[in-house]
Design brief:
The chain is an alpha/beta fold and about 350 residues long. It has two domains: about 180 residues, Quinone Oxidoreductase, Chain A, domain 1, CATH 3.90.180; about 140 residues, NAD(P)-binding Rossmann-like Domain (Rossmann fold), CATH 3.40.50.720. About 30% of the residues lie in helices and about 25% in strands. The chain has twelve helices and 18 strands. It is globular and about 60 Å long. The N and C termini lie close together (about 10 Å). Bound molecules: zinc ion (ZN). The site of zinc ion has 6 residues, from helix 5.
């Protein structure tokens, strides 16, 4: 089968012929239809420090996918051939205390498909049946291709109650944009999103027309709050940028007792004004991945009840044109880039 492989320990990815995966008794084989390119895949493409430390070569990359079940192992009964599915890309162990208590997303032994086990940028993908999520009929395969990052957005946006709250999101990358749409869907009042990249803020308005874009190089957040008649500050912050100035600005503009859910991964350690966090009673929660499988339930239910993030797709390409897709992602101007593997 065709697969996109990190074949060499250098910049780039290569489309190669590899063996179709064989399934064990608890596995499912999925004929991949659509995939989406993630920031993680760009780190792997670029072969940066993180990728060099975490990704063995050769490795089939990719973890955002939708497809149809081709075959199931002998012990599998929940999943049947022909089902339309997506799946959780974090594969957990069975030993840790967190896993034994059902907190699968907190397993320290987690492996990632397309990172340290073979991934989804291929005609066929093998994953444990446990990880497979069947798709409702009204969720499109294109949407299935990026449920993984939508799940990051939903996990972050549901960390705290948003009903009637004013929400500040720092970072208008694809996940920040989806989090804005999710926050409004969950009943937030004002959703303000900051970034310094005008292309991203433009895409934000297309996907989440009710969100308020703020370019912090040109506008003052206090002025925006004045227009919105917000006297005290934001109730909840969703940090999606991993950027120290954005985080500090978020802390400054929160109410006393405000809450921050943090998903953006900083490239290096932050300087924090801990005194301000303590004296103002700020609650701070780190978010990793998706809760298995409550985040999946919630995001599929939101899609079925009107959440629409399909305008985030800026590129639809056959898998053979992956290079065009990666170039678009690396330019920082793309939303989601979908690769179609049906004629790979
Ligand atoms: Zn991803």
């Amino acid at each position: 089968m065709k697969a996109l492989v990190k074949a060499k320990a250098e910049e780039g990815l290569w489309m190669q012929e590899v063996d179709r995966p064989e399934i064990g008794p608890d596995d499912v084989l999925i004929r991949v239809h659509m995939t989406a390119i993630c920031g993680t895949d760009i780190h792997i493409y670029n072969w940066d420090d993180w990728a060099q430390k975490n990704v063995p070569t050769p490795m089939v990359v990719g973890h955002e996918f939708g497809g149809v079940v081709e075959a199931v192992g002998g012990e599998v009964s929940r999943i049947k051939p022909g089902m339309r599915v997506s799946g959780e890309g974090h594969v957990v162990g069975e030993k840790s205390r967190a896993v034994r208590a059902g907190r699968f997303h907190l397993d320290p032994d987690t492996k990632g498909i397309g990172v340290n086990m073979p991934g989804a940028f291929a005609e066929y993908l093998r994953i444990p049946a446990f990880n497979v999520v069947p798709l409702p009929d009204d969720v499109a395969m294109e949407q299935a291709a990026f449920l993984d990052p939508l799940g990051n957005a939903v996990h972050t946006a549901t960390a705290f109650d948003l009903v009637g709250e004013d929400v500040l999101i720092t970072g208008a990358g694809p996940i920040g944009i989806m989090a804005a749409a999710v926050a409004r869907h969950c009943g937030a009042r004002h959703v303000v999103v900051t970034d310094i990249n005008p292309d991203r803020l433009k895409l934000l308005v297309q996907v989440a027309p009710n969100a308020i874009p703020v370019n912090t190089l040109e506008e003052d957040l206090r002025d925006i709050m004045g227009h919105l008649k917000m006297t005290e500050g934001f109730d909840v912050g969703l940090e999606m940028s991993g950027a120290e100035p954005a985080f500090n600005q978020m802390v400054e503009h929160l109410v006393m007792g405000g809450k921050i859910a943090m998903l953006g991964l900083p490239a290096r350690p932050f300087n924090l004004d801990m005194g301000s966090l303590i004296m103002r009673g700020i609650t701070f929660k780190g978010i990793y991945g998706r809760e298995m499988f409550d985040t999946w339930h919630k995001m599929l239910a939101m899609l079925q009840s009107g959440l629409d993030v399909s305008k985030l797709i800026t590129h639809r390409l056959p898998a053979s044109e992956f290079q065009t897709g990666f170039d678009a992602m690396r330019s920082g101007k793309a939303g989601k880039v979908i690769l179609d593997w049906r004629d790979a």
